[in-house]
Amino acid sequence: MSKKTGQDMKVGQSLIVHGGDGRMGQEILRLAQHDGWAEVISVDRAGFDDVDGIPADVVIDFSSPQGLLNSIVWCEENGVPLVSGTTGLTDEDFKSLERASQKIPVLWAANMSLGVHVLAKAVQALSHLKDWDFQIEEVHHRMKKDKPSGTALFLQEELQKAVGKRELPEPLSLRAGGIIGVHKIMAVSQEELLCFEHQALSRSVFARGALIAAQWLAKRKGKAQLYQLADVLES
Ligand code: NAD
Q1: Residue of 30, 20, 24, 19 whose CA lies nearest to 140
Q2: CA of residue 103 to ligand 1 center, whole Å
Q3: What is each CA distance from 8 to 34, 38, 48, 212, in whole angstroms?
Q4: CA-nearest residue, atom 40 of ligand 1
Q5: Per residue in 60-69, pLDDT tens?
Q6: Exposure of 70 by Cβ count < 10 A (0-12 exposed, 13-18 middle, 19+ buried)?
Q7: How do residues 43-100 score in pLDDT, each as one tens digit?
Q8: Annotated catalytic, 144?
Q9: What was the pLDDT predicted at 165?
Q10: Helix H segments across the chain?
Q11: Which of 48, 110, 148, 186 has the lowest tally of Cβ within 10 angstroms?
Q12: Mutation test of ligand 1: which of 28, 29, 63 has the most ligand atoms closer than 8 Å to its C-beta?
C-alpha cells in the first residue's frame, strides 16, 4: 500500500486504486494527485488488508479478473462504491458485478473514453446499410492479456443491435509494440468502404474517464445500482 495526499484538495475525497502498480493504475494515481483528491491510496497484489478500516469514498479497479473479484468483496464488506475498467471478464465475473450492484454502486466500462462512447452511438447509423459487410478490428500493445479487447466486444454488441439478426464476423485482433488502443469499425459494400476509427493517444484518456466516473459514483454512496459510463457522461 502506498498513500499520497493531494496538494490543493479540490476533490476532497478518499480514493483507493486497485492495480495501482500497473500501467493504468500508475496513470490514475498520477492524475488523481494532480486533481487534488484528499487521499489517494495504491493497492496491488499485497491486497486490501492494509486498508481495512480506512474510510475510502470510492475504489477504482484496473487490475485483472481475479483482482476485480477481490475489489468486489472488499467494497461490498465496506460499503464503498466501485468503478472498474478491468477487461477479459467471464459471464460469471459479470454476474458478480451485478450481484454487488444490489448492495453498492458499481460502474464498469470496457472503455472509459468519451470518444468510444460517441463511437458506440455512431454505430447506430449503420442500421441503414442493408447487405453491407461489417468487420471490427482492434490493435493493442503486445502486453495486453485479453483478446479481442473488451472495447471490441462492446462495439460488436452495439453493432449487432444496429444490424439486427445478421451474423457478424468475430472482431480481428492484432498485438504490436506499444499501441495503446485502436478500434476500427468497417462497413463495406461492392462500391464503398466506410470506416469509423478511434485511437487512444494516451492512457490518460482512460484514467481521466475513470476518475470522472469515480467522483460521480462517490456521490451516490447509498444508491446501489449497476451504472454505465453513459449515466456519467450524459448526466
Ligand atoms: P497491467 O498489467 O499493467 O496492470 C495490472 C495491475 O494489476 C498490476 O500492477 C498487477 O500486479 C495488478 N494485479 C493483477 N492481478 C491482481 C490481483 N489478483 N490482485 C491485486 N492486484 C492485481 O495492466 P493495465 O494495462 O494497467 O490494464 C489493467 C486492466 O485494465 C486490464 O484488464 C486492461 O484490459 C484494462 N483496461 C481497461 C481500459 C478501459 O478504459 N476500461 C483501458 C485500459 C486498460
Answers
A1: 24
A2: 24
A3: 9, 8, 27, 17
A4: 111
A5: 999 999 999 9
A6: middle
A7: 999 999 989 888 899 999 999 999 999 999 999 999 999 999 999 999 999 999 999 9
A8: yes
A9: 82
A10: 23-35, 65-78, 91-100, 114-122, 150-163, 204-218, 229-233
A11: 186
A12: 63
Band (pLDDT 50/70/90 cuts) for residue 8 is: very low
Q: What cell numbers appear for 45 in the block?
A: 497484489
Question: Which of 216, 229, 226 is CA-nearest to residue 13?
Answer: 216
- In angstroms, the CA 38 to CA 205 distance is 22
Could you tell me which residues come within 8 angstroms of residue 226 by beta carbon, excluding any fewer than 6 positions away? 97, 98, 101, 106, 107, 108
The model's confidence at residue 7, banded by pLDDT at 50, 70 and 90, is: very low
**140 flagged as catalytic:** yes
Strand, coil or helix: 138:
strand
Task: Report residues whose beta carbon is within 6 angstroms of any ligand 1 atom.
Answer: 19, 21-25, 44-45, 62-64, 66-67, 70, 85-88, 109-112, 146, 206
Weakest mean pLDDT among 8-12, 86-90, 157-161:
8-12
With beta carbons less than 8 A apart as the criterion, state whether 7 and 36 touch: yes
**Residue 110 pLDDT:** 96
Q: Cα-flanking dihedrals φ and ψ of residue 9, to 5°?
A: 50, 45
